[in-house]
Amino acid sequence: MQFLNTYTGRPEKKLILARGDGYHGSTYLSASCSGKARDKTYLDIASDRIRFLTSPNPFRRPEGMSVAAFCDFLVAEMESTILAEGPERIAAFVAEPVLASGGVIVPPEGYHRRVAALCRKYDVIQIADEVVTAFGRLGHWFAAQDVFGFTPDIVTFAKGLTSGYVPLGGLAISDALLDRIGEAGQGVMFANGYTYSGHPVSCAAALASMDIIEREGLLRHTREIAPYFQARLRELEDLPLVGEVRGLGLMACIDCVADKASKNPLELDYEVGSRIDAHCQALGLLVRPMINMCVMSPPLIIERPQIDSMVEILRTGIERTMDDLEAEGLWHRDRNSAQGRNSPTPAAG
């Protein structure tokens, strides 16, 4: 990022905006940009370079605030942060279209287009982290433009690029941004590369994977099956332990709470998701436990009978977890709380 801004005539632009609950990788700077607080507990980070914004999680918005008002708050917070730091110092804004491992958080309607407009207004490079959302997960090759209606300056991607068979990641940079680098003169070119860049085996796997996705109509299939997937999973919200089921495309999260009134996570912390996962695994289903949440991203080829089986196992796994918690005196089905929702503060601190 410092390289890009040096050669676009803006070397003073070094600060990066990121969000609570976001995840962008495990190398030094990408981990520093990640807003999942627990990922930072035992790590040094480049705190002088990053400014965190509130997680765009509508489920955790303030009590009494509408989703539309919450979106207004998020956009206003971003603009006030840019102005407080100085637009001349803000290099980039990095964000997942859907916050994946942070809990499959889908920002409010219109959020992405509005923050994209702020990036253009204040000359901030917009980076869409599509490591999870690209290559079919939301029914399109890329989600930023096709699903959320904005065109970023940089897109990062991996995972679905090769369907996970071999390691490969990449990034796409807009012609407009590359042109700005070229306009700086001095024979400048973007030549960022690594020892294994463009590895022929990985690239062959990526091309083969994309051929299969296209030939077998998996993008269309995802768009057609996703509403059924989301609707069946949302049936689980009738369970006392489940605060919200949310998601988009073939991404979903079951957010467990101590009680539905306060929407506060269970005090059991990591154990709840792990307990559900253990019960589900014994029944033949793997889910990803994330503290009080269960996250899932099923194969793009999933069909209705498999979704039905998945939901049945999840229901049983959650019910058995509730039985365990009650038997151990850790939770009660009729539990109530006078506490309100959490205030919107950056999850990364």
Keywords:
Aspartate Aminotransferase, domain 1; six-stranded mixed β-sheet; 10 helices; Aspartate Aminotransferase, domain 2; disordered C terminus; alpha/beta; 2 domains; 10 strands; 349 residues; four-stranded antiparallel β-sheet
Could you explain how this protein is built, in words?
The chain is α/β, with parallel strands linked by helices. The chain has 2 domains: 2-213, Type I PLP-dependent aspartate aminotransferase-like (Major domain) (Aspartate Aminotransferase, domain 2), CATH 3.40.640.10; 218-327, Aspartate Aminotransferase, domain 1. The protein contains 10 helices and 10 strands. The strands form 2 sheets. The chain has a 6-stranded mixed sheet with strand order 2-1-3-4-5-6. Strands 7-8-10-9 form a 4-stranded antiparallel sheet, covered by helices on one side. Helix 3 (67-85) packs parallel to helix 4, helix 8 (218-234) packs parallel to helix 10 (304-327) and helix 9 packs across helix 10. The radius of gyration is 21 Å and the shape is globular. The model is unreliable at 336-349 (pLDDT under 50).
